[in-house]
Amino acid sequence: MNIFIAANTTWYIFNFRSRLIAALKEQGHRITVLAPRDKYVSRIEALGVRHLHLEMDNAGTNPLYELVTLARLAALLRRERPALILSFTPKVNIYVSLAARLSGIPVVANVSGLGTGFMRGGLLKTVMTGLYRLAFCHPYTVFFQNEEDRSEFVRAGLVDSKRAKRLPGSGVDLERFTPEQHTGSRKHCVFLLVARLLWDKGVGEFVEAARQLKSKYLEAEFRLLGFLDVQNPSAVPRSDIERWAAEGVITYLGSTEDVRPYYNDADCVVLPSFYREGTPRTLLEGASMGLPLITTDAVGCHDTVENGTTGFLCKKKDAGDLAEKMERMILLTPEQRAEMGKAGRAKMEREFDERIVIGRYMAAILETGSSMGLPRKTGFSVST
């Protein structure tokens, strides 16, 4: 089939869906990536797929501009006539589903978290709920990355329960993210937070917990890794990052295209997020590399941890409780932390292997193809 994969950045598709693209190509499908043009276009094209520019303002709210965007997208789909569209990220899910509905093109959508709009409620949540209700009556399948999001959409009548299915997040590449031995001896504990630097990701709580612990555990290290998302209203200002670093509370590592060396140089991955996550990829990556986790007992996050066995769960928006859980991690021996990490790796292998996600996409594509009268043919092993 001629399959489109759509998202709000080409970066997202390259970093999170490259293996899905490879699996689809192995089955003989023709793939087109539909996303705003960025510096990852050449990398996408190097995967042997076509890229089409999606003209969209991810943060735009002007009704007239948004209607023009939707009309352009509908015209593009009528011209290209893909057999199926796999859509990702909130705004693209809505717009692609609406535009594809006009042309009768089936869609498989992926809800990777509900974000701040749902969390904060008010008018924005009302508008988004209305758009989801209008859009999600069309997709053949809607995947959700946690059960809470799936249940909320079904309960609110935004999607039919028969079409709402669960995925284990985006999955994790267990061959790429694999445990490695630390070089040298670790005499202190290194905590690493990997995320877009947003207040909603718990950056403020992480810094405050680090400040509380620094006075007692001078050698403990608290590191931040991630890019500054200046267009997001929840973005942490660069001036705050620089001030914390000058104070000696945290070390800011900047951003990177390969996070593995930073995981390998840490003892624990921390994500005190209260953002409405799907299933945070950084937690899956850290656990896959054999690191214990500390994260919030919140939607999406708590699915990644077996409390007390693979890490610790802390309360949302509570720096004191986070500091307590981090202190418990400090007081463990390196061997005990290693056992937690080993248990976390086993959990990733059981529940979050990326092949599970790819297998379920293959099953959805087969079902969609059958509904279109196409032959059922695949060589990919489908995991459930």
Written overview of the protein:
The radius of gyration is 21 Å and the shape is globular. It has two domains: 2-171 and 353-371, Glycogen Phosphorylase B (Rossmann fold, 3-Layer(aba) Sandwich), CATH 3.40.50; 190-351, Rossmann fold (3-Layer(aba) Sandwich). Helix 1 (10-26) crosses helix 14, helix 4 (90-103) runs parallel beside helix 6 (122-135) and helix 8 (203-214) crosses helix 12. The protein is built from 14 helices and 13 strands. The strands form two sheets. It has a seven-stranded parallel sheet, sandwiched between helices. The model is unreliable at 377-384 (pLDDT under 50). 43% of the residues are buried. The chain is an alpha/beta fold.
Q: How many domains, in number, for the residues?
A: 2
Spatial strand sequence of the major β-sheet: 3-2-1-4-5-6-7
Instruction: For the record, give the distance between the C-alpha atoms at the N and C termini, rounded to a whole number.
Output: 23 Å
CATH architectural group of the largest domain: 3-Layer(aba) Sandwich
| Principal-axis shape | globular
